[in-house]
Amino acid sequence: MVSYNLAVVGLFAKQMQSFEHPAVDSSRTEIVPHSIGDNGKICVGVNLYDDSGNLLFEDQEVDSNSSLPGMLVNIDLSGRLGIENAYIKEEYSGQRIGTGFISDLMETARKFGFESVSLVADKDTGAKTYWTEKHGFVSVDGSLRLEKRF
């Protein structure tokens, strides 16, 4: 197992900030720190916007009173990357925004020697089937959590 330092988090943030896609205005991309754990796990929120400033991700309900905008990326400094809430709004669906962003994160993780990437995929949208058949992820314990080991 490789141990990483906070400089790796900065490199991931730089990669996320510079994501290029015709529907994304990368100058508006926000990387928002959510939590830093004592165990070497760092969670950041990612908000992608179009040229008009519209958020491309669906809000994810936390409870009946609040929600989180954007995607969550968990960087475990022991060599694991986790992706949650990667749900693109319907009007932007099918443009490979989420797929491109996640693929870039996977390539960055592989380049830095991370051992795995996991994501939570909603089977109702077909995402679980897509990520297992097209990108080699496997279901963890039959759940919606998928993992790809490098």
Can you offer a commentary on this structure?
By secondary structure, this protein is α+β, with helices and mostly antiparallel strands. It has a single domain (6-149), classed as Gcn5-related N-acetyltransferase (GNAT) (Aminopeptidase). The chain is 24% helix and 29% strand. The strands form two sheets. The protein has a seven-stranded mixed β-sheet with strand order 1-2-5-6-7-9-8, with helices on one face. A two-stranded antiparallel sheet has the order 3-4. The longest helix has 15 residues, at 97-111.
Q: Tell me the structural class.
A: alpha+beta
Principal-axis shape equals: globular
Number of helix segments? Answer: 3
Largest sheet, spatial ordering of strands? 1-2-5-6-7-9-8
Under CATH at level 1, the class stands as Alpha Beta
- The whole-angstrom Rg is 15 Å
Task: Indicate the CATH architecture.
Answer: 3-Layer(aba) Sandwich
> What proportion of the residues is helical, as a percent range?
10-25%
Strand content: 25-35%
Q: What's the number of extended β-strand segments?
A: 9
Distance between the termini: 12 Å
Poorly predicted runs are none
- Tally of individual domains: 1
Largest sheet: 7 strands, mixed
Question: What would you give as the CATH superfamily?
Answer: Gcn5-related N-acetyltransferase (GNAT)
Overall pLDDT metric: 86
Here the CATH topology equals: Aminopeptidase
Order of helices and strands: HEEEEEEHEHEE
